[in-house]
Structures are given as structure tokens and as C-alpha cells.
Amino acid sequence: MNIANLFKLAISSLFRNKMRTLLTMLGIIIGIASVIAMVSLGQASTKNVQSELSSMGSNMIMVMPARQMRGGVNMGNASSKSLDENDLNALKNNTVYVAKVSPMVGSSKQLVFGSNNHPCSINGVSEDYLDIRKYSLKSGIMFSEEDVKRYAKVCVIGQTVVKELFTNGENPIGQTVRFGSIPMTVIGVLASKGQNQMGEDQDDIVFAPYTTIQKRFSGINYFNMIFASATSEEESEMAATEITYILRSNHGIKAGAADDFEIRTQEELVSSINSVNKMLTMLLAAIASISLVVGGIGIMNIMYVTVTERTKEIGLRMAIGARNSDIKMQFLTESIILSLIGGVIGIFFGLLLSYVASRLLSWPYVVSQKAIVISFLVCAFTGIFFGWYPAKKAANMDPISALRYE
């Protein structure tokens, strides 16, 4: 029997019981749709994380003091004084793969303007910090190196701070706000960045010269962190190695001794988050694929019923010369077509589901071509695997017994 006749007979048999065929395909449809949606959303989540981290600076490098251990107790790194002005100057002047460097010193107090106040953290940074962290100005200017040198009482504020303090629509530029008891002149307003991947408001921020925070607020001569940007994303690891070498030399750390600082690159963060996302995606896809097994069992079950219902037809076909292989291929073709049609419908609904979910979550819409191809192949395999035994049973029937079947 040629292939065209096989397909014609299979389609005819399946459409003879439309509702039963649809219900049988339902397991395959749900399974494939779930797998496609899970894989697509997993990739969309990864892409969204990469986009969020890139908005923070794809070639950003963070240098932090190492955690302090006292009496076997981890004291964290907040009180460490391992990073200072000497380190900053060394990184500025002696690096090849580092484009820009900025320290950061933090302080938290109430920010006041007129009768309005807002609890806020103020970050002491240098003029290069905006470029490193991919912030941009909406209006006004960034403070200069001269402002850093003279401990100027100036600041640049984010959009959330503007909304909280300037409730009557005042132009923030040139206004004086009070941070604790110290007046600060607003010289710039940042463009909005929204929330980051961790849900933190990136617009609830105030920047001031780091020397101002050190001398006028905190009374310290060290940094909480140092931010740097590599000359390119590809050279981030080279820049991190360079920073490690310079800081170890600066701190007089001997070979084999532990560093008193920690370095984190965006590439490490992206890699770590991608690994977690990949594991979760695989786990969810594995759970969703259980529906495929259920759908396959449904196909096997309905093929058994079909073989039983068409016992006389099988006997008649054998009596007029049909070979065992023809009978087997007829029922196997029905099983494969049943699975493939369910798979195509499942792929369509999976893509639709992932599109709707991506829009609701404000994630990029990602179509996983690999998942579609694999799903299609899995459908064909499911049809063959679960349809083989019923088809074999039909082919092994005794023609005389089949013709006598009531």
C-alpha cells in the first residue's frame, strides 16, 4: 500500500469520530503547549534579566571589602576599611582595561524640602559614576571634579525624590534641600530608570560628591565600594584581573594570602542568574512533559478501542490480500497523524500562551525554535511508541476469527 493511500485512510478513520479524536489529542495539545510556553518564558526571563543587568552597565565591575571574621563570627563587610583614596588613584592611573572608576560612600538620613520630607539614602560618588551605571540626566548638570575637591554641598536627585519633595511642581534645579541638618543645592535631575530585577526603585536615589559624604556626613576616609567599567564587555575579565593585581600590590598582600577585597563582574551575575533560570526552565519543562506521557497513553488506549471496533474490517482486508505489514502501517499512521495534529495545535497554543504571559509580565517575547522542532519530533515519537503495540495487535489478528467477530 502506498503512502498516499495510507494517509487517506488514516484521515478518513480519524474524522469518522471527530469528538473522540479531539479528546484523544487533548493530552498531546496540553503537553506540547505547556513545554513550549515554559521554555519560551524561561528564555524570555533570561533575556529580561540580561537586559536589566545591561541597563546597570554590562561591563561594570564592583569592588567590595572582604567580609570580616571576628572570633569566628562573620561581621560582614560594612565596617571594613580596606578600600581608600590610594586604591582609587592606583586604579585610575595604572590600568589598561579599566575605562572609568568611581568610589561610593553611603549615608542615610531624612531629606527635607519645605514641609515635605522623604527618607532617603545619599550616595557619594565621583563624576564618572553616571557613565558606569548607565544613568543619564534629564535636566541640569552632574557635579564636577572641582566639586569633589572642595567638598561641595551639591547633589543630583532621581525622579522618585522629585515626586516626593517637589509636590507643587517646582523646578528642582537650584533648590536647596536639607539632608539631615546640612543644606544641599540640587544641580541635576536624573532620567527615570524604573525598578530593577530585584524590585528596587532605581529612581529613589541621591548622588553627591563622595568627599562631601566622607567629610560632612560620615567622618570617614575609606570607601564602601568602588565601581569600575571595563573598556569593553569582552575585556571585563581582563579588567577584573588587572584590578586584583593592583589592589593586592597596594595592600601588600603576599602570594598565597587571601584578598581583603572581593570583585564581582556583571558577566558573573549574568552567568549565575542564567544558570538558575536554565535549571528552573528544565524543571518546569520536565513537569510539563508529563502531560505528553498522559497524552501518549490516551493515544494507545484509543487505538486499542479502534482496533477492537474495526476487527471485522481488519479481517476483511486480510481476506482480500492485505499483508500484516499493511495493517500495521495503517494503524501506526493513524496514531502518528493523531499525535502530529495534536502537536501542531499544541505548538500554536504554546506560542500564544507565552506571548500573552510575556506581555502581562512586560518581558520580551521569545520564540524557541529549538523547542518547537524538538516538540514536533517528540510528537512523532509519541505516535510511533504508543501506537506500535495496538498496530501490532491488529496486524497479528487471525483473519477467520476477525471476520467472525461480533
Notes on the structure:
By secondary structure, the protein is an alpha+beta fold. It has 2 domains: 3-52 and 275-404, no CATH class; 81-259, no CATH class. It is built from 14 helices and 12 strands. The chain has a 6-stranded mixed β-barrel, surrounded by 4 helices. α1 packs across α12 (324-361) and α12 runs antiparallel to α13. Residues 69-79 have low confidence and may be disordered.
Features:
two-stranded antiparallel ribbon; alpha+beta; single chain; 2 domains
List the helices and strands and how they pair.
Layout: H1 3-16, H2 18-55, E1 60-65, E2 69-70, E3 73-74, H3 85-93, E4 98-113, E5 116-125, H4 129-133, E6 137-140, H5 145-149, E7 154-157, H6 159-165, E8 176-179, E9 182-190, E10 206-209, H7 210-218, E11 225-230, H8 236-250, E12 261-265, H9 266-288, H10 290-309, H11 311-319, H12 324-361, H13 369-395, H14 399-404
Parallel strand pairs: 5-10, 7-9
Antiparallel strand pairs: 1-11, 1-12, 2-3, 4-5, 4-8, 4-11, 6-9, 7-10, 8-9
Helix pairs in contact: 1-12, 2-9, 2-10, 2-12, 2-13, 3-8, 10-12, 10-13, 12-13
Count of the domains: 2
- Computed CA radius of gyration, to the nearest angstrom: 34 Å
Number of helices: 14
Which structural class is indicated by helix and strand composition? alpha+beta
The fraction of residues assigned to DSSP E strands is: 15-25%
> What oligomeric assembly is this protein in?
single chain
Number of strands: 12
Helical fraction equals 55-70%
Gross geometry: elongated
Uncertain runs are 69-79
